[in-house]
């Protein structure tokens, strides 16, 4: 996640959030903002998203077999002493786009067809390497997750999971215009 002055934030799969400053006097510097903490569940992905109102969010996709789709999302606000759970209506009239190359929080009022309170995400290509993920029909490819209804949908037309061949998942990247 890039911000002005050649600084960016990164998150590890273990949950550590780092701030990197590329313009340090002695070269690039790294500061740990959030220390990695064990999570009781299986985390599938983590994303950092900056919001138009100035928050930095960490969005986690977790394996949650007690949910109808087998996956749940958790949204946290990154704060100096860790991560704080935020209400699911935190997005108001915005949508999240979660990808491995870039994540964005965009207002929906000028984006026809984009739904508010919704996450658009693409699952990593490596899903075929994990047997338990193949049992989850909502994982893989470009999907949406409606926070208000707690439901997954396909974001783009896609073949049935039974017909999948390795390597034909859509790209994990989102292309967004410069708003």
Automatic annotation (TrEMBL):
Bilayer-spanning residue ranges: none
Pfam name, any one: Beta-prop_KIB1-4
Domain KIB1-4 beta-propeller: 5-122
Name of the protein this chain belongs to: KIB1-4 beta-propeller domain-containing protein
Native species: Dichanthelium oligosanthes
